[in-house]
Structures are given as C-alpha cells and as structure tokens.
Amino acid sequence: MRLFSGRMQKENIEDIKESSTGIGEEAFSLSEDNQYTKTKEQMLQYAENCCDQMIMCQKRLETAKKEYGEVNHYLTDISTIENLEGEKKENLIFEAKRIETLKEDKKSCKSSAAKMSEKKYEYISSHESEMPKILKELKESEDEFQAVKADLHNIEGEKSALKYERKLCIQRMNGLRKLLKLVLLLTAILLAAFAYGQYKGEYDYTIGFYIVIVTAMAIIAVIFSVNQNQTRKLKITELKLNKAIGLLNRYKLRYVNIKSSLDYFYQIYGAANSYELSNLWRIYLTSKKEREAYFTMSDNLYKSVENYMSIINSLNLYDSSVWNYQTKAVINREEMDIIRETLYRRRESLRKNIDYNNEVIYRSKEKIKELIEREPSLSEDILAMLDRKTENEEW
C-alpha cells in the first residue's frame, strides 16, 4: 500500500508542509500559438493534435481517479478507528501503547548504533516486497523525464526557427510585391515619356518601347517565379510549424504528467530522488539482518502486535495492514490529525491534476467541434481519424 503509509508517522507539522506540494502546480499551459488551418492537410493535422492530447490526458485521468479513490478509502479508515467505542477501543489503545513501550525498550537495549531512523526503517519495511519494482519504476520515470525535458528544449528551438523562417518568407513576399509595383511604375513612366517624345516628333522611340516592355516583362516574370517559390516555401513551413506545435503540446502534456507522477512518488516515499531511495534500501537490508536476530526474541511484542492487528482486522478497513506501523496515531490524536492533513493535501493534489486533464480534454473537443462546424466537408475524415486513434484505447 503506497499512498498512505509512507508519510503517516510525522515528527512535526513542518514535515507535512514541506512534503505536500501540489501535483501539477508547476504545470505550464499548452502552447497558445495559433495553428494554421488554411488547407485540408493543416486542418486534419490540427484535429489530430487535439485527439492526441485527449488520449494522453484520458490515460492520466484513469490513474489519478484510482489514486483519488484510494485516498478517500484511507480517510474513511481513519474515521472508523476514531469512532470506535467501548471495550474494543480500550483494547486497541492498550495494545498500541504496549507495542510502543516494547519498541522503546528494545531500542534502548540495542548494543549497536542504529544506521537509520526507526521511522524510515518502518516505512521501508512496509514496502519491502515492492521496493525493487519501485526503484526500477522511479529510475525509469526520472530518465524519461530528463529525456522529455531535453526533447522539449529541442522542439522549442525548432519551433522558433520555423517561426523565423515563416517571417522571412512573408517579408520576402512583401518585398517582391513592392518591387513589382516599382517596376510597373517605372515602366509606365518610361512608356509615357517615349509616347510624349514620339508625339512631339523629336525622335523615333519604337525600339525604346520594345526594350522597356520586354525588360519589364522579364523582370515581372522573375518576380512571379520567385514569389511562387516563396509561397510554396511558406506553405511547407506552416505545415512544419503546425507539426512542431502539435508535437510540443504532446511533449508538454507528457512533461506535466511525468513531473506530477514523480512529485507524487517523492512525496509518498519521502525521498528526493531514486538515488536517495536506493541508498535507504541498501541501508535497510543491512539493518534488517541485525534487527531480525534481535526481534525474534521479543515474544511479548509479537503477541501484542498480533492482538492489536486482530482488533484492526475486525474493523473491515480498506487496508488494515497499514495500521501495523501506525500505533502512535491510534494513541495520539495529534498524530492522527497529521495523517489526515497529509491525505487531504494528497487528495487536493490529485484533484488539481484531474481538473487540469479534464480541462485539456474539454478544450480539445471544443476545438474539433469548431473545426467541423467551420468545415463540414471534413467531418467524415476527422471522425474516421478519431475512430482510428481511439480504437485501441480504453475510454
């Protein structure tokens, strides 16, 4: 059980405050750059970008909602324990106090210095069977996060380069239009001058007429040719820019959700990174061997834990195994309040992440709807693309 037990025992309120940063608070918004939807290819690419965003957010939603439900179950377990009455409550508190007393006695009698705190030892112990898998998943997530971060930087650079290239194309096309106007103006002036001279009978400007017209036509042809080339280049650049923006948004979503998951990992495991958690695991394995030999001699502690867990199991909690390490919370109301506050903070973090992904899904659907309303002829192509992308996804 990962969500609850990792941080349940706290030495003070500040520990809670430091470990309860909201998931998704560092999430940045998706790129607001307008994607170009002038051609059919651009509009379909725009719709595909929206669909990819919805799929990524839906996957994260499923995980976050499951975790949100688990946190609610653990809060219900706390209420069940706190609302106990009569003999069962008295027995539970008695056994919890006895366990704590025996633990303190054993700690004071140890001949060798402890290599890790009791709190961290109990935390690792409650996750012992999962630790190899947890360490592997955490390291893979950290590596993926760094890779996505690097990719984001590269895509941002590519997007900036494409935007600059598009700006240059537009500037060149504007320059060509101005040059065309200048050529037409100069041609008109020269032809008018030759016509006036011809009319006055001063000279025969027939050859001049032909030279000006041929020269002007040649220059205009070159201008049109260069302009056509720039127009094609602009369309290709805009397509590439659309693709870069869509890719950037997908990577931003991955960044947000991976960062959210890593923060959640660090929060519930009480470690700053996978290296720190791996080091704790190594220390735990060494310390465990020393403690096992000592704890096997503690029959009284074993019996108390057995009696205590018998009472806990009779309460039909969502996860009774958690409370094997939470005797202090059973005895001390302040400890229980700290646990509850931690769970409230985790639930709020999950709520923010759920709302964020719901908002992205809603906006993506609205964008696709607007596109279909604007271009009804593309509705079949867009819906077919949506079906193709979602046929293997569970919604």
Which helices and strands occur, and which strands form pairs?
Elements: H1 13-18, H2 40-82, H3 86-109, H4 118-126, H5 131-200, H6 206-269, H7 274-295, H8 299-313, H9 327-331, H10 333-374, H11 379-390
Explain what this protein looks like in three dimensions:
With 395 residues, the protein is mostly helical. The chain has a domain at 129-270: Helix Hairpins, CATH 1.10.287.1490. Helix content is 79%, strand content 0%. Helix 2 (40-82) runs antiparallel to helix 10 and helix 5 packs antiparallel against helix 7 (274-295). The longest helix has 70 residues, at 131-200.
Instruction: Give the end-to-end Cα distance, rounded to a whole number of Å.
Output: 26 Å
Summing up helix and strand content along with how strands pair, one would put the structural category as: mainly alpha
Mean pLDDT across every amino acid position: 81
Q: What is the element string, with H for helices and E for strands?
A: HHHHHHHHHHH
Low-confidence stretches: 1-28
* Shape estimate: rod-shaped
What portion of residues is helical?
over 70%
Radius of gyration: 35 Å
Q: Percent of residues in beta strands?
A: under 5%
Largest sheet: none
> Which fold name fills CATH's third level, the topology of the domain at 129-270?
Helix Hairpins
Q: Count every helix, treating DSSP H or I runs of 4 or more residues as helices.
A: 11
The CATH top-level class label of the domain at 129-270: Mainly Alpha
CATH architecture of the domain at 129-270: Orthogonal Bundle
Number of strands: 0
